[in-house]
Amino acid sequence: MAKEDYYKVLGVKRDAKPEEIKKAYRRLARKFHPDVNPGDKSAEERFKLITEAHDVLSDAKKRGVYDRFGQYSDNLADMAARGGGPSAGGGRSAPFDFTGFDFGNASSSSGAGGGSSSFRDIFADLFGGGGAKAQEREPPRPMPQKGADIEMPLGLSFEEAITGMTTNITVNRSEQCSRCNGAGDAGGPLVVCQTCQGSGQVQRAGGRLRFAQECPDCAGTGRRRSPCALCHGKGTVPKTEQVKVRIPAGVDTGSRVRIPGKGEGGRLGAPPGDLFIITSVGKHKHFSRRGENIYVTVPVTVDEAALGAKIEVPTVEGKAQLRIPPGTQSGQRFRLRERGVPSLRNPQARGDQFVDVQITLPKVISEETKELLKRYAQINAENPRVAMGLE
Q1: How many structural domains comprise the chain?
Q2: Which of 239, 248, 236 is nearest to 277 (CA)?
């Protein structure tokens, strides 16, 4: 017996459409998934119950049985698979004929009509009569499917990110199988599916629970065509390729550069996916970067700061001239316009470079220099700490 009403577990009405059930399941699964709630046992148990409810209500046949009898369990599944009922006298289970049981006007709340029915008919619809029902259906032909995208990291130096670059990278991808054209099978007659051994179902585990699921290789039919000998049923074959990649000027850590058509191969004529290069930019010895602007600290002497000077400063494109005015203070910032990073959105535009001045004292002071500094102090008696209330 179900612990809770499956409809209430998913928060949907009893006449909810399949897409509503699917949407509710995804929303709740994201909320209660164990990876999102590590160590939370109550969330883990809730996730298992949500999964169990979805497994039943997302399957039209299982949902029909649940709506009619208000329960679903693996014990019922085992009983139906054996074609028997409760054993008599504690011995081996004997077949039990449910044909005489008439449920009159019983109907499912999903709108199924009433009328005479039997357990055997219901279980045959639900479990395929031990595989017979499944094999009456023709397995669906695969549909064209675009290939998946591929993401690859690429490390760049500070300068390479600023100026851009072109390089060749090795990509392990796939391409459409040339023998089966992406169909995944070799054609010919249908054979028993080896994945489910013809049952049309495979078992999957959800914690302590086990659920039956439609076989993905035969779509629940129990039969499939022999897989292609070249791609082994995948529809694609592996390929290692050298791809030329152009990294535009101005990328930063986390930038995504798209190379169309160099992802995984498509199937049945569908286009391949794309290749995305995810850039990671290294640090620089002198420069730092914030968006499209570059920052650098440049040392100046006392006389250059006091008297003013024209000095050379480094930029990402070489040296540049910077004029500092007389009386420049340590920490003062100057701007070199359009000496920053090119804009990815507008290659014609670029940021600025900011130069912070840092006044440095000479490492060795001679006696003559000391005397000059003493005379300077006498002539220019100034206390820079007066504003702080200090003498």
Answers
A1: 4
A2: 248
Position 387 in a domain: no
- Out of 118-132, 223-237, 316-330, least confident range: 118-132
Gyration radius of the chain over CA positions: 37
Q: Which residues of 204-226 are buried (b: 16+ CB within 10 A; e: fewer)?
A: eeeeeeebbeebebbbbbbbbbe
Furthest-apart CA atoms within the chain: distance in Å: 122
Query: Which pTM was predicted?
Result: 0.58
Residue 248, helix vs strand vs coil: coil
- Residue 194 is assigned to a structural domain of this protein: yes
Whether residue 109 is predicted with pLDDT greater than 70 in this model: the reply is: no
Closest CA to 171 of 249, 235, 250, 265: 265
Query: Kindly report the CA angle at 261 between 256 and 262, in degrees rounded to 5?
Result: 70
pLDDT band of residue 73 (cuts 50, 70, 90) is: low
In this structure, are 277 and 147 located in the same domain? yes
Burial class (CB in 10 A: 0-12, 13-18, 19+), 381: exposed
Q: Cα–chain-centroid distance for residue 181?
A: 28
Residue 380 forms part of a structural domain? no
